[in-house]
DNA sequence: GTTTTTGCAAACGCTTTGCACGTAG
DNA sequence: CTACGTGCAAAGCGTTTGCAAAAAC
């Protein structure tokens, strides 16, 4: 799913199947989200779009991100300094958060979770989120 | 470190060594935090204390939790529905968050992280946070 | 006595929401 | 034509902060 246009077609198909309407705003927000890999905040997306898109509102970005989450097309992957960060990559992967610059970086490192031992809790586990914290390469001087 | 009074003595020692003053509020907040294992929010602690402690303020609870974090005596372990949750247990462990009731539960399940592969990123990794999401035993009916 | 901490209330900042208008289907 | 989405501004809400009084050391 690397081709952006393919992803947008997929988005339209899924959105329609969920009864969502395909608006120019939604397409633009989804395109922006999947085009970049810095896990933007709602405001990041808003800032990137307001130049090309007269009158787009921050509220619409928030509402669209929530819709995308509900449709399984996006995820809130972290909260850095009180600001939610989103990802259009929905395949399982981990993240590293730099406590200096706040960058959120994808980590494709394998993790072996002893899920056998988790069974004793009798929980229905749906998701496992792994976040590493530290200082990124650029911030180490 | 199971004995509460022992933990409080340890807290006083560390706090003093960091130049912090030992106030009745701080002792009460720390005691409340380490006495319970439900990962309370600042408001949970405030609610539990305001009965026994005339005039304690929510701001003091927030400030104390921040001080405890800085002293390495507590941690913000999760944010559930926009509310930060704290833990006085600072040894490494994971958490399960029930998306129905919002409970945060300690998980002492081993995880083998392939830290070797992390090295290629040239990050200085200080912490690894693992959170499982799903539905807890009580909420499954 | 000096410095830190507290309580109160106000301020903050991200996010959500009510409403009238616009637009997709 | 009807239901859903949008823009705007206002409201929400957890958390932080300024300040004078109080307490720790």
Characteristic key phrases:
37% helix, Dna Ligase, domain 1, homodimer, 5 helices, alpha+beta, Arc Repressor Mutant, subunit A, DNA-binding, 6 strands, globular, 25% strand, 3-stranded mixed sheet
Describe the fold and architecture.
The structure is a homodimer of 141-residue chains. Chain A is an alpha+beta fold. Chain A folds into two domains: 4-86, Orthogonal Bundle (Arc Repressor Mutant, subunit A); 92-140, Dna Ligase, domain 1. Helices cover 37% and strands 25% of the residues of chain A. Chain A contains five helices and six strands; from the N terminus they run ααααβββββαβ. In chain A, the strands form two sheets. The first copy, chain A, has a three-stranded mixed β-sheet with strand order 4-3-6, with no helix packed on it. In chain A, β1 and β2 (83-87) form a beta hairpin. The radius of gyration of chain A is 17 Å and the shape is globular. The relative contact order of chain A is 0.13. Chains A and B meet through β5, α5 and β6 of A and β5, α5 and β6 of B. β6 of chain A pairs antiparallel with β6 of chain B, so a sheet runs across the interface. The structure holds a DNA duplex (25 and 25 nucleotides). Chains A, B: Its cofactor is Zn(2+). Chains A, B: It holds the Pfam family FUR. Chains A, B: Keywords: DNA-binding, Metal-binding, Repressor, Transcription, Transcription regulation, Zinc. Chains A, B: Belongs to the Fur family. Chains A, B: It comes from Desulfurobacterium indicum.
